[in-house]
Amino acid sequence: MLELFAAGFASVFTLASMFMITLGVFVGIIFGSIPGLTTTMAVALCLPLTFGMPPAIAMSLLMGLYIGGTSGGLISAILINIPGTPASVATCWDGHPMASRGEAGKALGAGVVFSFLGTLLSIVALVFIAPPLAEFALLFGPVEYFALALFALTMIGTLAGKQLAKGIVVGLLGLILAFVGMAPIDAFPRFTFGIHDLDGGFDILPALIGLFAVSEILSVAESDFALKKENVLTKFKMKGFGFSVKEFLGQMYNMFRSALIGIGIGILPGIGAGTSNIVAYSVAKSQDKHPEKYGTGCLDGVVASETSNNASIGGAMVPLLTLGVPGDTVTAMILGGLMIHGLTPGPLLFISNGVVVYGIFASLIIANFVMLIMEFFGIRVFAKLLSVPKHILLPVIFALCVVGAYGLNNRVFDVWVVMLFGVIGYVLNKLKFPTSPMILGIILGPMAETGFRRGMQMNEGNFWLFFTRPIGVFFFFATVFMIVFTAVGNVRNRRKEEARA
Questions:
Q1: b or e along 451-465 (b: 16 or more beta carbons within 10 Å of the residue's beta carbon)?
Q2: What is the pLDDT of residue 327?
Q3: Number of domains, the chain
Q4: Which residues are CB-contacts of 186 (< 8 A; sequence separation ≥ 6)?
Q5: Is 415 among the domain residues?
Q6: Tens of pLDDT along 261-298?
Q7: 330-365: burial string, b at 16+ Cβ within 10 Å, e else
Q8: Which residues lie closer than 8 Å to 460 by C-beta, 6 or more apart?
């Protein structure tokens, strides 16, 4: 492990990689801090730029974007009470009240420091959890991958939240779109309607750019959402990190508890930081002796939210690297980035491309330190970016979406795919349908189908032999459990709402 770590750091300690990490963190913070721009959008826009890069440099940029974007959401959450990303929703509840009473510097300083510590703890967990899990995953064959993909698809219920039926519909739509093009194994064309551009199916990158970036641009443009400069707290005092050593030490238990929550939720496929920050905040409030102080400007709330959402970064990378299952929407984009460079996430990645994997670990560590330094010294600059008018920002981003999609394969067809998925995402948002389940369907559909067809060939067409594989049986039972658990949870929630009504 030490040799691979040394090789990984050596691959990252180059001028090009360090520049890309710094650039990624900077761009990520901007996208994370400005409401309407998200970490997923930042990664989607920058993925095409990595096409001609070596894998180590490409991953350096993506890791910088991931860490910068996740942490950047705290800036707008604290200063204007609008989370830049879903990962910072709970930060608003105590961060903005602190800023309103003149403690913006303290809230921002605590957010930055505990974001750094949360990420650091999750990277340590990633380094120690991922390699053993990858060794275990070497036991996986086609049957196990089919069972795993089936289990991961049940995460649609988690991503959909209270909109279970809508989430299932969108997930099925994603599966249908994933089946467009040549079938695996026998290469039979499906749903192409004589259009040869569809023979290869929908490329994952233009689909992701359209679904997450273009749809968001259309939604923000329609709402005519513009931040007024006077609503942004650009003037605030900040000495050091804004809080005392005593206050820091007093948050140790809260930090470790929130980090464990973030790592645990991050490991679960399809959930991520958008959920972990709210769960950690709720746990911190429920276990506090004075829960009434939460929501009034309590440092504990900021620490719980920012530690957990950044701790989800390392957690979400665990299933991505070891099993090829994205932990959240950002790692779904990173999965696309790995595939662009011919790297197939899974247990064999640690054997065939171990230096790249440990280079990713090294990039995360370095990007985390860059984020701490950049946010500490540039927090006022990033605060002023909140007042940039949307009518200037959105057209530039839209142009980057088009250029990025075209640059992937030099095909105008990919630009039309971006537009198509942008409209699909926009319509789904208008109808209050969650879009994340579609991504699970698009990414996991081919994995499930390929595993199923190869498994059937291995078992000479006898499906019941699937249940003779212990790991596969475990995931089949886990799938049934998740379906029942989600269904029961939805019924209970519905009864509670009816009782309140």
A1: bbbbbbeebeeeeee
A2: 67
A3: 1
A4: none
A5: yes
A6: 888 878 766 566 767 887 788 888 878 888 788 888 88
A7: bbbbbbbbbebbebebbbebbeebbbbbbbbbbbbb
A8: none
Kindly report the length of the chain. Answer: 501
List, as own/partner pairs, every contact residues 181-188 make where C-beta atoms lie below 8 angstroms and the sequence separation is at least 24, other chains included.
183/449, 184/446, 184/449, 184/450, 184/453, 185/450, 185/453, 185/454, 185/457
H or E element that contains 344: none
Q: Is 75 helix (H, G, I), strand (E, B) or coil?
A: helix
Report the DSSP beta bridge partners of residue 189.
182
Q: Quote the CA–CA distance of 89 and 66 in Å, as a whole number.
A: 17
User: Average model confidence (pLDDT) for the chain?
Assistant: 81
Say how far apart CA 18 and CA 12 lie, in whole Å. 7
351-392 tens-digit pLDDT: 888 888 899 999 999 999 999 999 888 877 766 666 667 677
339 closest CA partner among 3, 34, 55: 55
- Indicate the residue type of 220: V
Q: What is the pLDDT of residue 28?
A: 92
Classify residue 462: in a domain, yes or no.
yes
The alpha carbons of the chain give a radius of gyration, in whole angstroms, of: 22
Let me know if residue 13 belongs to a domain: yes
Beta bridge partners of 190: 181
C-alpha closest to that of 151 among 440, 465, 457, 489: 440
Helices in 101-213 by DSSP H: which ranges? 104-137, 142-153, 155-160, 164-178, 204-208
Query: Is 101 part of a structural domain of the chain?
Result: yes
For the cut 50, the answer to whether the pLDDT of residue 228 exceeds it is no
Tell me: the pLDDT tens digits for 134-149? 777 667 788 887 887 8
Fill in the DSSP letter of residue 183: P
Range of the structural domain that residue 100 is part of:
2-231+248-500
Write the Ramachandran bin of 38: left for phi over 0, alpha for psi from -120 to 50, otherwise beta: beta
